[in-house]
Amino acid sequence: MDVTWEDSGWEHLAADVGRRRLPGWDATVGLIAGREAVLLYDTGSSPREGAGIRAGAAELLGRSVTHIALSHPHFDHVLGTAAFPGARVYGAVGTDHLLARGSRGAAALREEAVRHGIPPAEADDAVARLVGPHHLVSGELSLDLGGRQVVLANIGPGHTGHDLVLLVPGSPDVVFCGDLVEESGEPQAGPDAMLPQWPAALDRLLALAGDDALYVPGHGAVVDAAFVRAQREMLAARSRLS
């Protein structure tokens, strides 16, 4: 019997496009299937969580993830990448340095993970197995997954200095936004956020996809362009007051 997206724990958004909301921090991972390749957007908060995502994708599609795009270098979005050996990993320019084993960025990821409740031993294992991007994106990069084109766009800085979004053209277009957009809480502006530049990043996001697209936040329910505009105005007001 064929396994449906919902049977395998994925929310079906468009033809061959879905996402999963992970427990704990409600982070989203996206899944896009072409005839020849499968792309995963973000990988979860640990190799253990990544292994669960890998198993769910394989159950649904009957094949492995071949490409990974990392939205930004925060622990809940990147520490599961080691669970996908052999996948081609894409990230915004500069992400490679932050996700290099033994780097200050790796140490900061470990501290961030432990601070948010990841057991220290599990965080140590994740950082020891840290996988950074093999392919760096500056501007836009189109990938052909086999009958399915996707576009990776480096539209930051904003939530971080290295924000990579994913456009899946179709009916409707689907945009995976990373934490440039959040629905289940206010956008989080940590120490690596670039608040003055964030509204302009959302302008670029809206120009990329337009009014009729589905916008998939890094955390929370799928939203529309009006929600993104409202969040843009809120961030602009916050920046003016800071």
Strand order of the largest sheet: 1-2-3-4-5-6-7
CA-based gyration radius: 17 Å
Distance between the termini: 56 Å
Give helix and strand order, one letter per element, not per position. EEEEHEHEHHHEEEEEHEH
Q: How many H/I helical runs?
A: 7
Kindly report the average pLDDT value.
96
Q: How much of the residues is beta strand, in percent?
A: 15-25%
Strand tally: 12
Uncertain parts:
none
* Form type: globular
The structure class reads alpha/beta
Helix share, percent:
25-40%
Please sum up the structure shown.
This protein has 242 residues and is an alpha/beta fold. 30% of the residues lie in helices and 21% in strands.
SSE topology sketch:
Elements: E1 11-14, E2 17-21, E3 28-33, E4 38-41, H1 47-61, E5 67-69, H2 75-78, E6 88-92, H3 95-98, H4 104-115, H5 120-128, E7 135-137, E8 140-144, E9 149-154, E10 164-168, E11 174-176, H6 198-209, E12 214-216, H7 225-241
Parallel strand pairs: 4-5, 5-6, 6-7, 11-12
Antiparallel strand pairs: 1-2, 2-3, 3-4, 8-9, 9-10, 10-11
Helix pairs in contact: 4-5, 6-7
